[in-house]
Amino acid sequence: MEIHQVRYFLAVCDELNFTQAARKCHVTQPSLTRAIQLLEKEFGGYLFHRERSRTRLTELGRVVQPYLQGVLAQAQAAKAQAKAYLSDAPKQLTLAIMCTIAPELLIQMFGRSGR
């Protein structure tokens, strides 16, 4: 299972329409359908009843929906934590300075900003 399959599944759950869900996910409808089919193959059953004018969740779809919502929420939380960590992580700057341009002034300037 891949996270994009989870996103597509949840989009179809929200829209109950494969075309609208594909539009919401910014993918083509055949790509979304194929991802859902691969997810169904992995789970071993259909996730949606597909009828001409109506799409609805199967019992299997209703069972896995809350778990996949949790998977997506956890993935988004992990991504946000990683982004926050990297933005707060100290950065190291390496400078090469020629001795003829008064490096002492630069050293003093950078020494003050780190306090």
Describe it.
- 67% of the residues lie in helices and 7% in strands.
- It has one domain: Arc Repressor Mutant, subunit A, CATH 1.10.10.
- A two-stranded antiparallel ribbon has the order 1-2.
- It contains five helices and two strands.
- It has helices spanning 3-15, 18-25, 29-43, 59-88, 103-113; strands spanning 48-51, 54-57.
- Helix 1 (3-15) packs across helix 3 (29-43), helix 1 (3-15) crosses helix 4 and helix 2 packs across helix 3.
Essential attributes:
115 residues, mainly alpha, Arc Repressor Mutant, subunit A, two-stranded antiparallel sheet
Secondary structure layout plus pairing:
Blueprint: H1 3-15, H2 18-25, H3 29-43, E1 48-51, E2 54-57, H4 59-88, H5 103-113
Antiparallel strand pairs: 1-2
Helix pairs in contact: 1-2, 1-3, 1-4, 2-3
Please summarize what this structure is:
By secondary structure, this protein is mainly α. The chain has five helices and two strands.
> Helix/strand-derived class?
mainly alpha
Helix and strand element order: HHHEEHH
Shape descriptor reads rod-shaped
Question: What is the CATH superfamily?
Answer: Winged helix-like DNA-binding domain superfamily/Winged helix DNA-binding domain
Whole-number count of domains: 1
Percentage beta strand? 5-15%
CATH-defined architecture = Orthogonal Bundle
CATH class: Mainly Alpha
Q: Uncertain segments of ≥5 residues (pLDDT<50)?
A: none
| CATH topology value | Arc Repressor Mutant, subunit A
Counted beta strands: 2
Query: Distance between the terminal alpha carbons, to the nearest Å?
Result: 47 Å
Number of helices: 5
User: How is the largest sheet built, in terms of strand order?
Assistant: 1-2
- Rg from C-alpha positions? 25 Å
Largest sheet, in brief, is: 2 strands, antiparallel
